Amino acid sequence: MTIRIAVLSVLLVGLILRLPRTLNLPIWSDEYHTIRLMRLPLADLLRGRYEELNPPLYFALIHVYTSVFGEAEVVLRSFSLLMAFIALVLLWLVARELLHDELGALLALTVAALNPFFVYYATEVRSYALLSALGLATLYTYLRLRRAEERAWRWTSLLALGVAASAYTHHFGLMIVLMIGVFIVVDAWGQRWTAAHTRACAAVGLGLLL
User: What pLDDT score was predicted for residue 1?
Assistant: First the structure.
């Protein structure tokens, strides 16, 4: 119970630190480019018919989000804020899986919540917060897949979706694929190759084909 309260407190502090930028920061040049792109027809975004090197997922999502909630600056930034908050929750889950120590996971969460770099990019009207959330979600699904004994297909499917979504969000999403590959190699190094490793490789391959 004490750890839960501490985790919720750190998440709340992280959210509070990010709110001023959401409410007060003016839009700048790169973000105007995002706004211009998100106003394009959704079909054009999904087909890549726009002047931007990065893949379309973020622009398509912010297009749908603003069509529901409007285009006020606070709304534009709130999407990234939501993704950044989800990323903090996922970081806690990932750290707990990796460290097998809730106190260590809490420390990792605290560092991320207070990190000025993460605070700065948490409200950018760009794809960075979404990519962070997807990267952590993808890693978490792999960590769960490697110890799944029943219904492993669910984690395999989620891993494939995570890889695909990351690749469709930003070109750096391919670094997430590389990260999963490194985890697979490290996990299998000096140990026998397991069905979980095979499923993970299949999921990564499927995700890249989607």
Answer: 67
Total residues found in the chain within this entry: 210
The answer to whether residues 10 and 106 touch, using CB atoms and an 8 Å cutoff, is: yes
CA–CA separation, 20 vs 17, rounded Å?
A: 7
Residue 186 CB contacts under 8 Å (≥ 6 apart), including other chains: none
Among all chains, which residue has been given the structure tokens 């969460």?
109
Single pTM value for the model: 0.94
127, 54 contact by CB (below 8 A) = yes
Q: How far apart are CA 37 and CA 51, in angstroms?
A: 8
pLDDT of residue 24: 82
CA distance 168 to 164: 6
- Tell me the per-residue pLDDT of 12-52, one tens digit each, with 9 for 90 and over: 999 999 999 888 888 888 899 999 999 999 999 998 888 88
Residues in CB range of 55: below 8 A, 6 or more apart:
48, 167, 168, 169, 170, 171, 173
Measured between alpha carbons, how far apart are the two ends of the chain, in Å?
42
Positions in the chain short of pLDDT 50: none
Dihedral of CA 78/80/84/87: which sign? positive
